[in-house]
UniProtKB/TrEMBL annotation:
Gene3D superfamilies: 1.20.1050.10, Glutaredoxin. Its EC number is 2.5.1.18. Keywords: Transferase. It catalyses: RX + glutathione = an S-substituted glutathione + a halide anion + H(+). This is glutathione transferase. Residues 2-83 form the GST N-terminal domain. Residues 89-220 form the GST C-terminal domain. The keyword ATP-binding does not apply. Belongs to the GST superfamily. InterPro entries: Glutathione-S-Trfase_C-like, Glutathione-S-Trfase_C_sf, Glutathione_S-Trfase, Glutathione_S-Trfase_N, GST_C, Thioredoxin-like_sf. Pfam families: GST_C, GST_N_3. The keyword Transferase applies.
Length: 256
C-alpha cells in the first residue's frame, strides 16, 4: 500500500482528526505540512479550491478529497475492512454518522467561533463571547448527558469508534474556547466527558499525533498558540493582527 498524503497546517485541530484515524488504522501516510499563510495559494488550492485543510491524496485509489468529515467517512469505508472503528448493523452505522455530523456542525463551528471572539477578533464583543462560550458548554452538556446515561464509555456501542476519535482534537482545545477556565480545570464540570477524553488522549496513537504536531510546529518556527517565534514585525501586536495580515495576502516576517 502506498502512503496517503495528508495536507495540513500544524496548529489547527481539524487535520489531526484525519491523522489520528490513520494512526489507529495503521494506514501508511505522509504529511504535507504547509504554512498558514499558504493555504489560499497554489499548490494548496489545486488540491482544495476552498483553501482549507485537511485534504488527502490517496494514490491507491487516485482520489483527492477534502473536508475532514468526508475524509473520515472515506477512510473508514476504504480501509477499516475489519470494522475496528465502526460497526456493521444498520442502527449503529447511522448512529456513528449522526455523531460525526454533530461534531462537524456543532462542536467544530462553535468551538472555533468561540475561540475567534475570545482571542482573534480585533475588538472585544462581550455579547458574542457570551453567546459562543454558552454554545460550547451546551455541546459539552450534550456529551455529558449521553455518556452519563447507563455509564457509557463510548459514544456508540461498546468500543471506541471513529465517532469518538473525531471529537478529540477540538475537545483538547476547550481551555482556549471557554473564558476563565484554566487548563487543569477545563472539563471539571463534565466528569463523564473528562473521563472519556482521558481514555482517548491516553492512547499511543494520540500521543504520536501530538509528538508529530510539536515537531511540525517547531519546523515552522511556531509557538503552541500558532504565533511565529521571534520579535513581532511592525503592525503586529496580537494574533488577530497576524491573521489579518495573512488574510490580506501579506506574510509578516518575525525576527528570530
Amino acid at each position: 500500500m502506498q502512503p496517503i498524503r495528508v495536507w495540513l497546517t500544524p496548529p489547527g485541530p481539524n487535520a489531526w482528526k484525519v491523522v489520528f484515524l490513520l494512526e489507529e488504522l495503521g494506514v501508511p501516510y505522509e504529511v504535507k505540512s504547509i504554512r498558514f499563510a499558504d493555504v489560499k495559494k497554489r499548490p494548496m488550492i489545486d488540491v482544495n479550491p476552498n483553501g482549507r485543510v485537511p485534504a488527502i491524496e490517496d494514490p491507491n485509489t487516485n482520489l483527492t478529497l477534502w473536508e475532514s468529515g468526508a475524509i473520515i467517512t472515506y477512510l473508514i469505508e476504504q480501509y477499516d475492512t475489519r470494522h475496528t472503528l465502526t460497526y456493521t448493523s444498520l442502527a449503529d452505522r447511522h448512529h456513528l454518522n449522526q455523531w460525526l455530523h454533530f461534531q462537524m456542525s456543532g462542536q467544530g463551528p462553535y468551538y472555533g467561533t468561540s475561540g475567534w471572539f475570545i482571542h482573534l477578533h480585533p475588538e472585544t464583543l462581550p455579547s458574542a463571547i457570551d453567546r459562543y462560550t454558552k454554545q460550547v458548554t451546551r455541546v459539552l452538556g450534550v456529551l455529558e448527558g449521553w455518556l452519563a446515561e447507563d455509564g457509557r464509555e463510548w459514544l456508540v456501542g461498546d468500543k471506541m469508534t471513529y465517532a469518538d476519535l473525531a471529537w478529540v482534537p477540538w475537545n483538547d482545545r476547550v481551555d482556549t474556547v471557554l473564558v476563565g477556565v484554566p487548563e487543569p480545570e477545563k472539563l471539571d464540570a463534565f466528569p463523564n466527558v473528562k473521563a472519556w477524553h482521558k481514555r482517548m488522549t491516553s492512547r499511543a496513537s494520540w500521543r504520536r499525533c501530538m509528538e508529530l504536531r510539536a515537531r511540525l510546529m517547531d519546523e515552522q518556527g511556531l509557538m503552541p498558540n500558532g504565533m511565529p517565534k521571534g520579535t513581532m514585525p511592525e503592525g503586529v501586536t496580537s494574533y488577530s493582527d497576524y491573521v489579518a495580515k495573512v488574510d490580506a495576502g501579506e506574510d509578516p516576517v518575525f525576527q528570530q
